[in-house]
TrEMBL record:
Protein name: AAA+ ATPase domain-containing protein
SMART domains referenced in this protein's UniProt entry, alphabetically: AAA
Listed Gene3D superfamilies: P-loop containing nucleotide triphosphate hydrolases (3.40.50.300)
InterPro entries named among the record's database cross-references: AAA+_ATPase, P-loop_NTPase, SLFN_3-like_DNA/RNA_helicase
SUPFAM superfamilies, per the entry: P-loop containing nucleoside triphosphate hydrolases
Domain AAA+ ATPase span(s) in chain numbering: 265-392
């Protein structure tokens, strides 16, 4: 969606008449029903006159087209400024110019990352050249008019019109060389060079047809991107389909094929399965097939940490921008038009929310509603026993009900085989008995390495130091958000053993696989959906055992996740926190592929587990 598309002389008039902020504000309201903030209007009114000066000095033909605030399809990202037209030889060009009001920046850790003053404080953000390059690549790989075109040539750059380049300028550091080569930077006194670049690409104007192709182009992944995903999946034995995984996969494919023949009825399939039943493996194979079939599709995960690790497991540390853009959060579809997508896959659907961060609640709608509405075929992978917060609404029954309300045909597939925990269905069943999900006499058998240790120090030594695993814990300790001397506060404290470690760094959403995070304790929101060879679980005092009643208990006063904690129970009502805490620990205890070691803060619970081993 393009908020503003006008000839270059009309753009100049809007700026010279001081109307540009007003015109953009009205266009935004009309096209998106969104009221923009005064801060954003001021940003336009500061930056766009700088571009008007560049356009004026380039002396372009009056029919070059200026496009402002181009919303990248299926994202909340917008390109600041595009200009479309032909050069002197008649070649069609589009130049993306990202505008920055920065005045200073510093180097930061990570590929393509810098730090600068944003939103009232210094933050880490992407390098301007990385941003402009990624936006250009996104268009080239998802807009059918561009990746099929042999005539339209895309270019990108950045204009930091308030920024005076220093002698040893951090933004020009060697580490950013390959991004700078693709999208050069222009600083405060580089206006002549930028003017020359604009004139070189679009001096002859005639940009209307080019702009129209961009705005009306169908959104679907390019053949090159499809081939990339296929190659990545082919290269890993981890993504082989077995038994009922194959059955579930074929069911989804059959529904899609039938849908292509008959488009008047939505289809929705619920794939139910516990921890380690291979839901994500099925999802990735479905994604590959749909891309190869030319479907417009995306892969949704509500959990940001799971989404990031899934990307990196699939595509490596380089995290190719074009592949990353296939993975989305569950709050991305509030305003998506009906049936814009052929297929949407929603992994970890039990973590769906009523509405997204900073979004207003819409009566009788939730994230499942939005996903089902946005696609002809929606696929949800769900496990009700992994609901760990009062905000989680994505139960099997709720998603099924939303599909029926939308008039969709509903299908269900259940997965049972265990591919985690050394393939031990016995271990999963034993955990269910231990946490009082099931009543049975089952004992712990098989070759899954489960141990109870008597000290958190021993837990760290066995799991982290010896086996390169990770420690996780229930939300039985508060989380200090403010750092001292840029160090994480050691919140996970067990005084009896003089043990203290920090929670995982909230800025490292790839905590589970990042080598610098081994001395941090992961929480449920960081680890859910992930797996590792060995996991060490610290069970806090939020979960305990009452030896008098011979029962598992939950202590509300020891649970510190305020956002996840449900209301207090009414008289004679079971505390709803009981299920959330048990679900949390079941999820944590089933993250290991080869083994799980446990330390319990509650001595009674420690004895209870040992007795049942």
């Amino acid at each position: 969606m393009i908020i503003y598309n006008e000839r270059s002389h009309d753009f100049l008039n809007h700026v010279y008449e001081n109307k540009i902020g007003y015109v953009l504000k009205e266009n935004m309201l009309q096209k998106t029903n969104k009221v923009v903030s005064d801060r954003e209007i001021r940003s336009w009114e500061h930056s766009l006159p700088e571009m008007a000066r560049i356009i004026r000095d380039a002396n372009l033909s009056s029919d070059a087209d200026v496009l402002l605030e181009y919303k990248l399809p299926s994202t909340e990202k917008r390109i600041d400024f595009l200009i479309a037209g032909c050069d002197e030889s008649g070649k069609e060009n589009v130049l993306i110019i990202e505008l920055k009001q920065w005045q200073k920046a510093e180097l930061a850790e990570g590929d393509g990352v810098v730090s600068t003053f944003l939103g009232g404080r210094v933050r880490e953000t992407v390098h301007p050249s990385y941003q402009a390059t990624s936006y250009r690549r996104y268009l080239q790989h998802f807009n059918e008019s561009l990746y099929h075109s042999t005539t339209i040539h895309m270019h990108s750059c950045d204009y930091l019109h308030n920024y005076i380049m220093g002698k040893e300028e951090p933004l020009m550091n060697e580490r950013y060389r390959h991004y700078l080569a693709e999208s050069p930077l222009y600083f405060r006194f580089d206006d002549r060079e930028l003017t020359s670049k604009v004139k070189h690409h679009v001096s002859s104007g005639n940009g209307k047809d080019i702009a129209e192709k961009i705005e009306t182009g169908k959104i679907r992944p390019s053949k090159k991107l499809v081939e990339t995903v296929g190659t990545l999946l082919d290269g890993s034995d981890e993504f082989v389909l077995l038994d009922e995984q194959k059955v579930a996969y074929e069911k989804v494919i059959a529904l899609y094929n039938a849908l292509k023949q008959k488009t008047d009825t939505k289809q929705m399939i619920l794939i139910k399965g516990g921890p380690g039943t291979g839901k994500s493996v099925i999802g990735l194979h479905v994604m590959r097939h749909m891309l190869e079939a030319g479907a417009n599709m995306e892969y949704i995960t509500p959990n940001q940490a799971f989404r990031e690790v899934l990307r990196k497991k699939l595509i490596g540390s380089s995290c190719r921008t074009e592949v990353r853009d296939l993975f989305k959060g569950s709050a991305s579809y509030v305003t998506t038009p009906e049936n814009q997508f052929d297929v949407l896959l929603c992994d970890e659907a039990h973590r769906l929310k009523q509405f997204g961060h900073m979004q207003k609640k819409i009566e009788d709608e939730n994230q499942a509603t939005h996903i089902i509405r946005s696609a002809n075929l929606s696929v949800f992978f769900v496990d009700d026993t992994q609901v760990v917060s009062k905000k989680d609404v994505g139960s099997y029954d709720m998603v099924k009900q939303e599909a029926e309300k939308a008039g969709a045909d509903v299908h269900t597939v259940e997965l049972e085989s265990q591919f985690r925990c050394s393939g031990s269905g016995n271990y999963i069943a034993w955990i269910d008995k231990l946490l009082d999900f099931e009543k049975s006499d089952i004992g712990l058998k098989g070759d899954f390495d489960f141990q109870i240790v008597d000290s958190p120090h021993v837990l760290k030594e066995e799991i982290v130091d010896k086996r390169n695993g990770r420690l996780v814990a229930g939300y039985a300790w508060p989380w200090t958000k403010n750092r001292k001397n840029n160090e994480l506060e050691k919140d996970v404290v067990i005084k009896d053993h003089q043990f203290a470690m920090p929670w995982n760094d909230p800025n490292r959403i790839d905590w589970a696989i990042h080598p610098e995070c081994e001395n941090q304790v992961g929480c449920i929101h960081t680890v859910q959906g992930l797996e590792m060879d060995y996991i060490g679980v610290i069970i806090g005092k939020d979960l305990g055992y009452d030896e008098e009643t011979d029962s598992i208990i939950v202590r509300r006063e020891e649970f510190y996740d305020r956002g996840a904690r449900p209301r207090k129970p009414k008289k004679d009502e079971r505390d709803p926190l009981y299920d959330l805490v048990r679900n949390t620990y079941k999820t944590l205890l089933t993250r290991g592929m080869k083994g799980c070691y446990v330390y319990c803060c509650d001595e009674g619970l420690q004895r209870y587990i040992k007795r049942h081993m």
